[in-house]
Amino acid sequence: MTQSTQDYPGERLGLPREGTGSIGRLGRRIGALALDYGAAYLISGFFGWDALAILALFAAIQLVFLPTLQGSPGHRVFGLRLVRLDGAWVGVWRPVVRTALLIVVIPAVIWDADQRGLHDKAAGTVLVRS
């Protein structure tokens, strides 16, 4: 029995090791998440909304920007973009699935060897460097 190994995350997906198109690494993803969640927190605080409103606003940010700009404002600031595995436009339903699972949190913190969370695997997407 042979075990397949890869030298770097994204190799088996056909992505480069480094630079444009390579897997978006943990530091960039955490920074993007913090920026998006922070924006939702500040906006909801300005209006006096509660914690549930923060999550709803965070989801709205994801759902508006993922299909239109290939990434949330946080993704774009940290040099990331969301693509399908074949590199095509993510469409509308993939961001909905991805965002719903991201809000649940657990799927986002379980990764595969390519550093893709279960939320990205379920949606058929990958965060790459832009």
From TrEMBL:
Q: Name one Pfam family in it.
A: RDD
Enumerate the spans annotated as RDD domain.
47-124
Q: Which residues cross the membrane?
A: 38-65, 92-111
What InterPro entries does its record include?
Pra-immunoreactive, RDD, UCP021697
Name of the protein: RDD family protein
**Keywords, in A-Z order:** Cell membrane, Membrane, Transmembrane, Transmembrane helix
Location in the cell: Cell membrane
What is the top-level taxon of the source organism?
A: Bacteria
Keyword Transmembrane annotated: yes
User: What is the protein's membrane topology class?
Assistant: Multi-pass membrane protein
